[in-house]
């Protein structure tokens, strides 16, 4: 199903924007993750313990296929571009895992130093995992936004990209657990890998997908919401105040923009850009389909402020349908 | 390049690389706890095996890493001692070969050679081996087949660990298998 405002979802054009620095930052960080992680944690163990690799491959392929189908079915109205979904998956699989592995080790050791062995055994993973892994998987959603933000039109889109980051992370993390189980087992690779894989499938089979989906939902909301009622404007007004994450710029109609085109900070007038640090940094903001366009009637911003407490609502001020 | 895309991309790189650098830096800046005289350490395997080690001979070494409750790494200068517990060892020799493979994976220029059998004063059977290569050292794997076993590995650059050989052997001999 499509609507006039629906962004075309197919083609690799959704990913390949070589004139955007975000793409190259993404490529750089994937390469860094592979460098820090890929050889020592993936390729060499695969060569040394191939049994563990096969024990991992079969169930995790099924897991990935099932979850991808579920994730893609979440949005009945618009299918996200496959290239961007793959990009999110690859980020979770290689960049997030590769960058998290040394951070996890360091933080677990740090907690052990500070609190002692009992505490770190009981609480270390619960404290370290969210600190490092959720941060890095969340950055995957931001990486996708920097590559092609126009495909994040609603919070649900953020959830989908976040879930794909989490799924990539989950699948590759399962591989590292399978390898560790195989190498730690004193008797057999298959026995060790199978035991760990079964445990991971019994408890938290979709945990990373879920957690990162929630993070992506929040980021998607922050990017797409248009309620600029918080923080309140300073007394006297006259200066634009950033909304949540600075993403709620007053959106002004530009005659040369096609419907559904991404709106950027650079599109806003200079007085609206002042104070919008995040937006000045270039995070794109898209006018959701159907949202009336605010016309700035005066030097203050009160005329352009939307309904308090609502997301995509009709503003008080003059609007053009 | 598109105007305005550089700074957010730079922010993404910084936020990502920070996770690679900051935790390691913070961890390195906090001193590791030191083994005190009379220190006893309990290690537990997820599958139920448990040992209690008397670390008194290694007093003054720093506890630099733990892998859950299963293993413990001590360090002094550039020498390290790792103690780990494992359950359900069916064949010590097979475990030795698998352990040698794991060491080869983490330290590619180190080979492990089995040098003979080892029996603790309490009668627990075990195997002894040597690490050869860029790091040298010794490894002991001790335990009854089918039960809980433990391994103790001493390694470091040549010339930096040999003087602690007797201390480590004393630790090996005094470990109690409690489960």
Q: What distinguishing features does this structure have?
A:
heterodimer, A: 321 residues, mainly alpha, 2 domains, two-stranded antiparallel ribbon, 9 helices, disordered N terminus, disordered C terminus, B: 179 residues, alpha+beta, Protein Transport Mog1p, Chain A, seven-stranded antiparallel β-sheet, three-stranded antiparallel β-sheet, 3 helices, 27% helix
Low-confidence stretches of chain A: 1-9, 238-285, 294-321
Number of strands of chain B: 10
Radius of gyration of chain B: 20 Å
Please tell me the overall pLDDT of chain B. Answer: 92
Estimate percent helicity of chain B. Answer: 25-40%
Structural class of chain A: mainly alpha
The CATH topology of the largest domain in chain B turns out to be Protein Transport Mog1p, Chain A
How much strand content do the residues of chain A show? Answer: under 5%
How many strands, which pairing sense, and closed or not: the largest β-sheet of chain B? 7 strands, antiparallel
Tell me the span between the first and last alpha carbons of chain A: 24 Å
DSSP helix fraction of chain A = 55-70%
How would you describe the shape of chain A?
globular
- List segments of chain B where confidence is low: pLDDT < 50 over at least 5 consecutive residues: none
Architecture blueprint of SSEs:
The complex is a heterodimer of chains A (321) and B (179).
Chain A: H1 21-48, H2 50-74, H3 82-115, H4 117-148, H5 155-184, H6 189-202, H7 207-224, E1 262-263, H8 270-273, H9 277-280, E2 285-286, E3 293-294, E4 319-320
Antiparallel strand pairs in A: 1-2, 3-4
Chain B: H1 6-29, E1 40-44, E2 50-54, E3 62-67, E4 71-76, E5 79-89, H2 92-106, E6 110-119, E7 125-133, E8 136-143, E9 147-156, H3 165-174, E10 176-177
Antiparallel strand pairs in B: 1-2, 2-10, 3-4, 4-5, 5-9, 6-7, 7-8, 8-9
Keywords (chain A): Membrane, Transmembrane, Transmembrane helix
Biased composition (Basic residues) (chain A): 303-315
GO molecular function (chain A): peptidase activity
